[in-house]
Amino acid sequence: METRNRVGFLDELRGFAIICMVIYHLMFNLNFIFDVNVPIFFEDWFDVIRDIFAGMFICISGIVCNYSSSNLKRGVQCFFIGMIFTFVTAFVTPSSPDLFGILHCLGICMMIYGLFEGALRHIPPFAGIVIGIFLFMLTFGFSRGYSGIGDILKFKMPDILYSTNVLFPLGFPGNGFVSLDYFPLCPWLFLFLAGSFYGVYVKEKRAPRFFYNTHFKFFAAAGRYSIWIYVLHQPIMYTALCIIFGRSLF
Questions:
Q1: 37 and 242 in contact (C-beta within 8 Å)?
Q2: Cα–Cα distance between 55 and 136 in angstroms, integer?
Q3: What does each C-alpha distance from 14 to 20, 37, 74, 87, 143 come to in angstroms?
Q4: What is the pTM of this model?
Q5: Which residues touch 143 (CB under 8 Å, ≥6 apart)?
Q6: Which of 12, 21, 128, 208 could bond 219 through an S-S bridge, CB–CB 3.0 to 4.6 Å?
Q7: How far apart are CA 247 and CA 250, in angstroms?
């Protein structure tokens, strides 16, 4: 998003979300690489908190698609960075590489939006938001083998969808599938699209007035450079922890 088009509150939310993600990855590193027990990491509620902040980041990425001159180009770049993570983690943590993390997901979402932007603009924004949120809720359990909203409309997905690892980007991981980070298109694409429809209101200055102001400069700055923070925080953090715990980098 160009500087003149920045929406202060969105930058702040994205900055807050990326900082929470850095803290989450710090706890992950301490638990699984440096054998430091951080009990809350294994609490069910902590997974819910993680999904909320990741969902916030994905939704905001959908909103700002309305300000981009080439979402297809942005998507290719984001997916490429995600693939770099895949190759690096395949070397550093070969038992659990990052096969389809949040950058892979965002890259594909941006490319899909870029390819179908013209058609999507024919859908009324409010209807798009409602449909996107409904499909997000309906497909949230795909990776766990079911579809439904809580116990409503809940049914088991066909086993054949999970018989191979080919469909894991869509939300159907096969037996033995392992990924260091996993954000499949179902359900996250629909949250991204819901954000893109809300972004129509934001761009037309129809969102609440406070959206367009900056309230916390620290979070706003983090939001503006969120992609760099995401790319650089793990190698910097890993190096620092290796120094602290007296371990070799490799």
A1: no
A2: 11
A3: 10, 28, 17, 26, 26
A4: 0.90
A5: 171, 172, 173, 182, 184
A6: 12
A7: 8
